[in-house]
Amino acid sequence: MKALTQRSGSMDVTIYEVAKRAGVSIATVSRALRGTGPVAAKTREKVLKAVEELNFTPSRLGVSLAEGRHAANGVVFPDLAGPYYTEVLLGYEEVASELGRSVVILSTKGRTRVNDLIKDLAGRVDGLLVFGHAAPDPLIAELVRLGVRLVVISRDPLPGADTLRSENTASARALAEHLAGHGYERFAFLGAPLTSGDDVDERWRGVRSVLGGAIEAVATREYTVECGFDAARALLKDRRPEAIVCSDDEVALGALLAAEELGLDVPGDVAVTGWDDIMAARHARPALTTVRQPMRELGARAARALDELITGVRDTPRHLILTTELVVRASCGPHPQEVRT
Amino acid sequence: MKALTQRSGSMDVTIYEVAKRAGVSIATVSRALRGTGPVAAKTREKVLKAVEELNFTPSRLGVSLAEGRHAANGVVFPDLAGPYYTEVLLGYEEVASELGRSVVILSTKGRTRVNDLIKDLAGRVDGLLVFGHAAPDPLIAELVRLGVRLVVISRDPLPGADTLRSENTASARALAEHLAGHGYERFAFLGAPLTSGDDVDERWRGVRSVLGGAIEAVATREYTVECGFDAARALLKDRRPEAIVCSDDEVALGALLAAEELGLDVPGDVAVTGWDDIMAARHARPALTTVRQPMRELGARAARALDELITGVRDTPRHLILTTELVVRASCGPHPQEVRT
DNA sequence: TTGTAGGCGTTATCAA
DNA sequence: TTGATAACGCCTACAA
């Protein structure tokens, strides 16, 4: 039974009314509208006229049910806060829309029954883009088992799904070597990995592989400005490293604030670096040395990969890694031979 | 006909298979699952067991078609870039999810056939949240006429839809008076309104009502860092106002960059203010004086308002205005008697 | 307490 | 070139 208080959007007129008005059958209306079969020119005219007069739009629900597809994708992320997820989502939405798919979003942070939410989402789309942290591994495995088309972003490859990430290890080494070139000898990695196998974990491993025992891991509760601030303040009060390598730009911004509060000069008293190259990184003072990752492209690629999986153009999972770029700015110290952005 | 290459997510098993396995009718399965009618304890057990074994999840499409509702809302924004839309969206999604509604997003910037995209979206949701700039007025009117539940954000009231915005005029006056208190006499408003009746327009009017002829309007192509930078550079080269009031924080960040490039000190040579209080505003140097608007709450309220419209709890449009807060930081000049954030 | 059957709005097959 | 009609997957009034 249809609840009249909850009509589905603008749709009230059905294909039957159009058919009646045009004096044809619903099959003919459907054909005329989709161009999916022969329709006499004259008949088509009548149909289009009726459609126009009644302001008919085929019900998405009806179409989807009949076609067996939603023409929609889902995106699952931990939190939309912060520029990283936004940028990726933006790149994703643009391509998805171009491919004729709507984008349904779901944020999991602070939610109870995350698994149910994600499964529900899976039921209303043709495929899912999941950010590494947003869904627990067992759930991912279950989704794979259920045959959900899946692209997972920012984590190490897993069976049955596409994965997609930016390069981390090599960039982390490059960053570490750059800092070592400044002559620093006592480092801290602020925002120690909270999960193994994710982006931050790779960054940490890369940095450590170069700096070895000279760098210590300092955890933050989350990768946010606030948490970065708290942890950095405690760290700087207790033992001041010469350089703080942060898990990402937001944590680094927190570190800058902490240094300021303690009256420390960056990079004079302590160098700070970030990761991602978000907008605020360029505007911070000192501007943040960071590693730029192609966030929008990450999203765009994810959309295309998911499309391939859904349309069946490809059925073997693929694991892609996009390249990044070291962006040297003021926060890591004077370094005349490098180009500044 | 169902296209097997495009199964809808994880759903393959139907209520019929569950019914057969449990040895009952589909009606009983439905009742047992939704608790919508009497079911013997023993029967329920059998059903739940079958559901478990088959890993059954009711098809969203089937449910929606039968219920006559999508259990989803749409959000239309010009562009997800920049923190403003993100924050609002975040607040919106949280509440929508709490209310059991999915969120389908649509970005219109740079898209052709925007009207078609929006209408299509309207067809797959129970109601729409639209940001002021994202949809042309005639389309809004048409949606209202079609009976689409609508909440429009950041624009002046219009008939047939809820509108929701932050307070602009009074805050703009307060900001203008604050700046006048600094003793400045030659002002520019960077990011002149591109549309009438939107947030920026209100800000401009508010500021001008205090400063009168002392402030000139300077247009930017868009409200972005890049455009703010370009316009500010031209402005500062040509005739240097004592204070630049910007349409929003991003434009203001661009102005800061322009001043830096020209070797001008902010606020020594020129004062700069923004609007919104995005994250980067606090981290910029000098930190931006701005007007904070409750972006997340804006989204949260929009979600509740739309829910009321959809469920029919309320059917007369309502127009809400949320309060804002002047945030004085360093970029407007030394001002000892104010509290800094 | 349970089952039958009609309806939700399309698409597409098949016969005319 | 067109029209009946069977899916698609679920919900629920009504009868049993």
UniProtKB/TrEMBL annotation, chains A, B:
InterPro entries, alphabetized: HTH_LacI, LacI/GalR-like_sensor, Lambda_DNA-bd_dom_sf, Peripla_BP_I
Name of protein: LacI family transcriptional regulator
Pfam families reported for this sequence: LacI, Peripla_BP_3
UniProt xrefs under PROSITE patterns: HTH_LACI_1, HTH_LACI_2
Naturally occurring in which organism (per UniProt): Nonomuraea turkmeniaca
Keyword flag Nuclease: no
Keyword Transcription (UniProt): yes
Alphabetical keyword list: DNA-binding, Transcription, Transcription regulation
Domain HTH lacI-type: 13-67
Gene Ontology terms, MF aspect: DNA-binding transcription factor activity; transcription cis-regulatory region binding
Superkingdom: Bacteria
